[in-house]
Each structure stands twice: as C-alpha cells, then as structure tokens.
Design a protein that fits this description.
The complex is a heterodimer. In chain A, the strands form five sheets. Chain A has a seven-stranded antiparallel β-sheet with strand order 12-11-10-9-8-13-14. In chain A, strands 16-17-22-18-21-20 form a six-stranded mixed β-barrel. Chain A has a four-stranded antiparallel β-sheet with strand order 1-7-2-3. Chain A contains 13 helices and 23 strands. Chain A folds into three domains: 233 residues, 2-Layer Sandwich (D-amino Acid Aminotransferase, Chain A, domain 1); 89 residues, no CATH class; 145 residues, Acid Proteases (Cathepsin D, subunit A, domain 1, Beta Barrel). By secondary structure, chain A is of the alpha+beta class. By secondary structure, chain B is mainly alpha-helical. In chain B, 79% of the residues lie in helices and 0% in strands. In chain B, helix 2 packs parallel to helix 9, helix 3 packs antiparallel against helix 6 and helix 3 crosses helix 7. Chain B is globular and about 60 Å long. The N and C termini of chain B lie far apart (64 Å). Classes of the chains: A alpha+beta, B mainly alpha. At the A-B interface, helix 1 and helix 5 of A face helix 7, helix 10 and helix 11 of B.
Chain lengths: 486, 222
C-alpha cells in the first residue's frame, strides 16, 4: 500500500506556484530572469561569467546591416525572451568559402536560413506571449572535457535550485542522441541527480515519452545512452562543485528571486558559466534526485542565512550526504578511498589454520597504471623473498633503451622463469622514466571486505607498499576526498 | 417550459432563453476546466479553447464535432508538414495553414456528402459550430511551432477530453435546467473557483509523475 504521507515530501505544481513562486518571486525579479540580456548585465556586476555576447539584433534594420563575416566560426543564436530552450540554434563551424554554417547534427544553414530564423525571433515566435523580441548571437560554450564524455554533442548543464539563500537540490542534464544534442528533458535528455553535499551524481532518469505520447514518465537508467563508450552515470564527481553552489547563490542575490533555478554550464576554458536564470524551475528535478523538494523547502523557510558560505554549509548539513548511504546501492559498486587500507596475506595462506599471517597496509589507487604493483620489501615479507632472489639471479639488464629490447629479453627468459611457480610472467614497466623488466606475482588481498587474488608487478620506488592499477579497480568508485570512509 | 420566478423575470427583461443557457454553460465549463487543471493536471490550450469546443460540440453533436475536430487536426498536420519545407514568415505560415484547412474541410464535406460514412446529416450541422472547431487549428499549430508536435498532440488530447466532459455535462437537460432555474448556483461556481485558486495540494498528474519517489522511498525503508 502506498503511504500517502510520503506525498507530503513532494512539491507539486500548485504548491510551487502558490507558496513559492508568487510570494518569493516579485515581478521585477521575474522580469530579469525572463530577459537574457538583462540577466547577463546584472550578473556581470556580480562578476558571474555568462557566455560572451557577439551581437544583439533588435530589429530588421540591424539584421540587414549585420556583418556576418565578423562572427566567429562557432556561435549560438538565442531569443532573448525564449522559454524552454525553444528557438536556440547552435553552430559548430562555418562552411569553407560559403556563407553557411554547420549545426551539431551536420545540417547546414545558409545565411538566408539564419536570417529567416532571426526574423522569426524578432517577430516573437519563441517569446512568451508572442511579444516582439531581440535575437542574441553569443559565444558557444565549449563543454568541459570531463562532462563531454557523458553527453552527445550538445552542452550538458547543471541546474541548482536555491531558496532563501540555500541551495536546495541539483541535477545535471546530459544531451543524448535522441534529444538531438539538446539538454531538454522532454525531448529525451538524461537527467541525473546530484548530491548537494559532495557534488556526486546519484540517480539518472530519462523520458520514455517517445514510446507513449500520453505519458510523462521517466525511467531509471544506469549509464549513458547511444555513445560509443557508454559510461555509468552515478558516482560522477561534478568538477567545480563548491564554486557552482556559490555562483547559484550569487545569482539568487543578484536577481532578487527568492525561489530560483540557476542553469550553469561548464566551459573548457572559463569554468562555470551561467546559462540562464529560471523564475519557474520545473519539478522533474525531484525525480532525478528521488527526493521531494517540499520538505527541503520547508526546512529552510525562515532560516536566517548570514552569508553565501553559511547558505552552502546549511545545504550540505541538511541535504548532503544522502549519497553516502545509497551510492553503493545505486551503482552496485564499492567506494574506496584513494589511499585505502587493505590487508595483504602471506603467500600460501590457509584460512583453515588458526594463525593467519597478514599485514595491514595502505594501498594507493592509481588509475594511470594498468597492472597493480607491489613494493619489493613487502613482497619479500609476504613470502616471495626466494622468488625475488631467483629473479635477480636471472641477471636481466636494467635501464633498457627501448620496449623492443625489453620484449626481446622477456621472450628469451620466458622459459627459464617457468622453474619458479610464484613468478607468473615478466612485465615491462617504466620506473623513474627508465624501461625495466620485472617479475609478476599473484598476491592475495582483502579490499573493502572482499578477498581477491591479484596480479602485481614487483618493483621499487612506488608511492605506497601496494599500488592498485586500473585492472583491479574495476567495480570500485574512488573517492579522492575521503568523504565516505575514514 | 416552466421556469422559476427569477429566471422568468430575466427572460421577460431582455435575456434570451438560449443566451441564459449559454451563460450558465460557460460558467460550468470554465469551472470544469479549472477542476481538471488544478485537481487532475490536464493541460489544455488555455481556457477559451475547451469552452468554445464544448459549446460547438453541443451544437454539432459529439459525433460530428469529433469528426470535424479530427479533420481539422489532420489537415493542420498535413499543411504544416508541407509548409515546413518552405522558408516563410511565422504569420504567413499560420495564414497559409488556414487556407489549406479550408480546402481540406471542403473536400471532407464533399466526401461525406457522397459516401455518407455514417455522417449523413453533416449538412444539418450549424456552420458556426464548424468554424468554432476550426479555431482549434490555430492553437494546435501555434503550440506545435513553439513547443513540439508531441507536446501539441498531448495538449490537444487534454483539450478535446475536457471539452467532451464539458459537452456531456452541459447537454444533460436536467443539469442545464437545474442551473437555469437556480441561478444562485453561479455565485457558488465562483466560490468553487476561488477555493480552487487557493488549492496547493498535489494534482493527480503530480502523484503519477512523482510516484517513483514515494515508491522508491518505501522500498528503501522496507
């Protein structure tokens, strides 16, 4: 049976309009959010970055005299008072020697097509209430490479809802092939909830609308769609998280909107850039976070927030940290610290015996290397002393000049190492920028409660007694800030 | 027909009977639209479109009304997809859509006249009610241009559903008679709307949309 009380946590459209938008968003503040040019001007006063404006076209005359050649190769055309991303066209490049520009999906628009589109903007086709509008030609945000791997062509954005100077809830919208590179949820972009406390992604949804025209329902998904390499969507650390929270609160202050949705994109060069302010942010964010907005808003109502830092602290304390409990459940992965305490068992450990010889050590997670590595002295202590000695007796030259030379040595020695059952194979590694051949052994370890036998290259000069390489880190989420475990 | 004193007085003082019924119908329909919007969460093309559509249906009959609605929407879709390929201004596009719509309707009336297809009495349908339904095309095309085809279809379905509910209610003789004879109910409808205006509970659609959060939390707790 459904417990109807749980619905009390959810914010519906009626309550959003009645209790939050109407009382907290005065018309003068809404007018700022609904007008991108004014938004840019006001945010600039607060040193908040927005995409750079190349040209403003206010009327047909200005359109007629527009110097198209002066525009950069890539740009975006937007209606000043557009809603829901309508009327926005992105151009990736210019066709050589022609007055034509290329769109993300490969379509080509000639100057005449673009002029017509701008005329439509001016006539108010995309603006609220069909009012005549201004067309903005602005810089195309170049997606930060980190977020680029999760989205199809377009620019992903991060939406943060703030109320009473506290960030309340956040999500990121990732363009997909189906959404045609736009970050519009209705057209099929993915929305992923973000834990306010850490900036780590939690649940992901996408609209399964296209199958059923009547439904407005979302389906939970685990990984990106239609990309060459689909990646898991939960557990991603959004870069510049604290900065984004700060920006969203600054935007709230600048605009005067008590209840605001701030859309931030992450530019490869500029970092966080505010796309737009939203005076009537949608409620789908609750689905992406699998959490209700209502109780969060009620908790924050009436608090006396003294500064931006204070607001962030309150948000992190009140709403952060949910990810800690649920991240393993969501992703099916274990969280490990970048420096994780693990147990390394002695060679040939028999678990039936009473006394088990093991060492507790700090392993370093390094996704930059493939095979894990073990320090020579630890390997010796774990019972591989004889094997290391055997390897040393093979008289393999060190500091080789090329990989080919190293491979030749491995080929030569491959037969002689079979005598020693501990050495599984020989591997080429780079130590202190020099190429060397080293033995590989199997070591039994316990990490995050799991017993594992993993291949390790015996070496020296590594940052920890054991370095875990990416081969053995599959299935783990690495926490670089020791947020989850001590 | 026997009216109450108040109604009789109105009729003898220059308010036509039909006008009175229509005014009552408008109040009822408007209230239905606000209930479906704020309690259920159905999206319609504003409030005017479902009201005018329900009234048009009451004049044309539901069968003819829906048939004409379908034809209007189909020809709008057809004209939109043809005109999409042509570079043109926004208002000219809508005007051109009307021209093509008129042709589509003419063709439809001719076909019905020849083959009947269960709509043999279409010539008896008042022209004005047909024209009122045609206005739907404007709402449909504008929504499609501004938002998307899918969105427009969804809102269309909402509008036609609400209009059909409205048609059903206002065409019940006893309902309209009761309201005409008890005009005090009109301030009551006003009060209902004022109350609805304060309603901040979840719409049925919100419950459906956010059900996964509530269910998800339940599962997590159990």
């Amino acid at each position: 049976m459904l417990n109807l009380n749980n619905y009390k946590e959810v914010l519906g459209l009626n309550r959003r309009n009645q209790e939050y938008i109407r009382p907290y968003n005065p018309p003068s503040a809404k007018a700022i959010a609904d007008n991108k040019v004014r938004t840019k001007r006001i945010l600039a006063k607060y040193d908040i970055k927005t995409p750079e404006v190349y040209k403003l076209i206010r009327n047909k005359k200005q359109l007629e005299f527009l110097d198209w050649e002066s525009l950069p190769k890539s740009f975006v055309i937007k209606p000043n008072q557009g809603t829901g991303g309508n009327g926005i066209i992105v151009f990736y490049g210019k066709k050589k020697g022609q007055s034509a520009w290329i769109r993300p999906n490969g379509d080509i628009m000639t100057k005449r097509d673009i002029i017509l589109h701008v005329e439509n903007i001016l006539e108010g086709r995309f603006s609220m209430g069909n009012k005549s509008d201004i067309a903005i030609i602005e810089e195309r945000v170049k997606t930060h490479p980190f977020l680029k791997q999760y989205s199809y062509k377009g620019v992903p954005d991060i939406r943060i809802i703030c109320f009473n100077n506290v960030p309340i809830m956040a999500m990121t919208r990732l363009p997909t092939k189906r959404s045609n590179g736009t970050a519009n949820l209705h057209s099929g972009a993915i929305c992923t909830g973000i834990d306010i406390g850490t900036g780590i992604t939690t649940y992901s949804m996408h609209n399964i609308d296209d199958k059923n025209i009547m439904s407005d329902t979302y389906e939970l998904i685990d990984s990106t769609l239609d990309l060459k390499n689909n990646k898991p969507l939960s557990g991603i650390q959004i870069p510049f998280w604290d900065e984004m929270l700060e920006i969203s609160l600054k935007c709230q202050k600048a605009s005067g909107l008590g209840y605001i949705g701030v859309d931030i994109a992450l530019d490869a060069e500029k970092g966080p850039v505010v796309f737009e302010l939203n005076a009537r942010p949608g409620l789908g964010i609750q689905v992406a976070n699998q959490a209700g907005l209502r109780w969060r808003l009620e908790k924050v109502k009436g608090l006396d927030i003294k500064s931006i830092k204070h607001g962030i602290r309150v948000a992190k304390n009140l709403f952060g940290g949910e990810v800690e409990e649920s991240i393993e459940a969501i992703s099916g992965r274990k969280v490990i610290n970048i420096k994780e305490r693990i147990l390394a068992y002695n060679k040939g450990t028999d678990f039936k015996k009473k006394k088990i010889e093991k060492e507790t050590i700090t392993a370093f997670a390094d996704t930059g290397v493939l095979t894990s590595r073990i320090n020579k002295s630890l390997a010796s202590r774990l019972g591989y002393f004889e094997s290391i000695k055997f390897f040393n007796q093979l008289d393999i030259p060190t500091d080789l000049t090329s990989f080919k030379e190293a491979q030749d040595i491995i080929n030569q020695k491959s037969e002689s190492i079979t005598v020693n059952s501990d050495i599984k194979r020989l591997a080429i590694i780079i130590e202190d920028e020099k190429i060397n051949v080293r033995p590989v052994i199997n070591v039994l370890i316990k990490i995050s409660g799991q017993l594992k036998e993993i291949e390790m290259i015996v070496t020296k000069n590594i940052p920890a007694a054991i370095v875990l390489g990416s081969n053995d880190l599959k299935g783990y989420l690495i926490d670089t800030s020791n947020t989850f475990k001590n | 027909m026997k009216y109450t004193e108040m109604t009789q007085w109105l009729i003898t003082n220059g308010v036509q009977e039909e006008m009175l019924t229509l005014l009552v119908a408008i109040c009822l329909l408007a209230t239905i639209v606000s209930i479906t919007r704020y309690i259920v969460g159905t999206k319609t093309y504003g409030i005017y479109a479902p009201i005018i559509l329900a009234i048009a249906y009451s004049y044309s009959g539901l069968k003819y009304g829906l048939a004409i609605t379908i034809i209007v929407i189909l020809s709008s879709m057809l004209s939109y997809s043809i005109l999409k390929k042509i570079r043109m201004h926004y208002i000219t596009r809508i005007a051109a859509n009307y021209c093509m719509l008129a042709m589509g309707l003419l063709l439809f009336l001719l076909i019905v006249n020849k083959y009947k297809i269960g709509l043999g009495n279409i010539s008896a349908v008042p022209a004005l009610s047909i024209i009122s339904i045609v206005a739907l095309s404007d709402f449909f095309t504008k929504q499609q241009i501004k938002k998307s085809f899918k969105n427009s279809i969804m809102v269309l379905i909402g509008t036609v559903t609400v209009a059909t509910i409205g048609w059903f209610i206002i065409t019940r003789e006893f309902v309209s008679m009761y309201f005409v004879n008890n005009l005090i109910l009109i301030p009551l409808l006003l009060a209902i709307n004022i109350l609805l205006g304060q309603f901040s509970g979840l719409r049925l659609k919100d419950r459906f949309r956010f059900g996964s959060i509530v269910n998800g939390n339940e599962n997590a707790k159990s």
